[in-house]
Amino acid sequence: MDVLTLARIQFGATIAFHYLYPPLSIGLGVLLVCMEGLWLKTNNPIYHQMARFWTRVFALTFAIGVATGIVMEFEFGTNWATYSRFVGDVFGSALAAEGIFAFFLESGFLAVLLFGWDKVSRKTHFFSTCMVCLGAHFSAVWIVVANSWMQTPAGYHLVMRNGVERAEITDFWQLVFNPSMLDRLFHVLCGAWQAGAFLVVSVSAWYLLKKWYLDFARASLRVGLTAGLIASLLQLISGDISARGVAKNQPAKLAAFEGLYNTESNAPLTLVGYVDERNQRVIGLQWPGMLSWLVAHNTQATVTGLDAFPPQDRPPVAASFIFFHGMVGIGFALIAIAALGFLYFRHGSLPERRWLLWILVFSVLGPQLANQLGWFAAEVGRQPWIVYGLMRTPEGLSKVVQANVILTSLMLFTFIYFLLFAVFIYLLNDKIQHGPDDQDLIPSGKLALPTELIHHPKA
Amino acid sequence: MNLDLNTIWFILVGVLFTGYAMLDGFDLGIGALHLCTKDDTERRTLINAIGPVWDGNEVWLVTGGGALFAAFPNVYATVFSGFYLAFVLLLVCLIFRAVAIEFRSKQPMSWWRQMWDIGFSAGSLVSGLLMGVALGNIAWGVPVGADGEFAGTFLGLLKPYPLLVGVTTVALFMMHGAIYGVMKTEGALHDKLRVWAMRCIIFFVICAVTLTMATLLYVPHMAERVRGNPWLFTVALVNMLAIANIPREFHHGRDRLAFLSSCAAMITLMMLFGLNMYPNLVYSLPDAANSLTIYNASSSPKTLGIMLVIACIGVPLVIAYTVCIYWIFRGKVKLDRMSY
Question: What is the C-alpha separation between A366 and A358, in angstroms, rounded?
């Protein structure tokens, strides 16, 4: 294989593996804030027990997220040196800001979140949890700023320096709030909240099936399902906004998502199907006019097709189509699952509906899969550009790196990541089987409940 | 030397990497010394001595890398693509030591703990070595083509001088970590670390003297600025005094002052490195005209200015909560059920 293919596979594989973890940190972060907030507000020790248990899960995901995240920062330089020279002025600033505003905040207060339960007051601990959650969100902000700039560059101009053209900042805020940034940030965050919420839902449903830790499971399920339903509904809104943004800013990408070869009005939306790339058509169940309506809220609106772009400027259509439709399908399924679970939970009959509990157990895979597919759609759909409209992917490659070197590192990372994943699953399973700690129901030391709240057995 | 934006960023990137060496240096050092004790509780104590802070310490590297990318993208691109295999190895080491800290004490089996202990220790040791080798190559000079791309090979990076810098870095981190360990532990482990710290101090002093001689003899450009400006010799003098002060304070049981002297030694070493490199960031050998400098490798003045604003807002915040965290977790390590 050539250097380009290997470099893309290596970058794709390492970022895909990395992205299993940050959404969990962001999503669980929000839930930890909710749980600990409820504990502070109600003094109900079950919330303390929940916060403690989910903090341990959080720590596990966070460690792997950090370890695999450093790889990403290095790989821009190792694999894409020419790209780094071209965008360093713009893209580097976002990465540096991420380090200074997000990572320090997150990792500093993480120490208090994990190890500070007995060392600081309840309020200080809650504050630390909030800061960790905020730090995780900041890191999403800056990385989405950087990636969105690659999708919809803004606030820059092209300059010749030392005989090489590169992008330089003209307006920092235009760069930060580039046309797709807010839409995509909202989309990424909803996906992360879903990932965290459905992990909590899945483990709690498992406990209900096994009839273990029932109080803990019910309380966790209530928080998880509520957050999961809200996040899934928000994701629907966000998806709609994002897709319209793509139609406006990156029409070739939207055309590839929908396999729309010809520019047309009354453009159909494909519900299920696949792209026949050779004959340039989509085979499947289509809803006429729906794509036009989604893009412009008018079934007669014209949607730009791939025919508006020369063949060398078109993304891979079949792959983009599958990734995008897979993501959307899972998104709708998650809304249905969360809504059903929520309704039956409110009704009180969820524990008897074992089929639904089983679905909830497996629902944890949904957001993870959708997050992966969504990013694949976003990045494959941007092709053949590494920076949309400015630099093609092959041009961004490092000039001095040889194929065998990338192959060696690819094999090394693949081996290590499989190992890490196996250990992660093993330890996560171990924590889940072990369950919440009974000690946490009687918080002591600095966490002890105010004395008037402690229930004294009758003499 | 005039204080323009490029120079300020040269200093700031140096400050970030010095901060990294001072902070992550001690937890890499603890890692390198991890296998010196066979007792499980003692090993856990060592890991928990760095438990709450290692993650934040590593962020200095991430932010230093980000700052290098933003301020001097050509250096970031040339060095990272040129040192490809070395950096991949560094990443593998950093991954193993990070997850080993998290995983090790999660299972009771002795093979499990032994496996992650080795991963933690080897990862820490080799990380320090590779960082030192990278720094040594930058000091010695690397082949850079007229196009600004790295023109050497992976094996070409393994010259004696960079290897010596690598070993010295390991010695420095081990000494730094051992002193930190002495401050954070008590009882038998404390006494054991005291012996190890003394050995590490001797090891480091031998390395430092050898490295100084080697630099003066074989890498004359790394002493040029100090040679030309004799008053800068004060930095070298402070460096020597700081190093000499480490065993002195340690001998008198003033561990905190020994640790601060070790920090001072790191700061002055980095200052000497920076002073002699300036304005080069990557010294090109054999053709010095191709060197990447803070001017031909930098971002635009506008970006450097924006980044300076970001740094002025961010750095005080970072220092504030770093101090808070170290304050909250001050004192000797006690194992409890939250510990690793």
Answer: 13
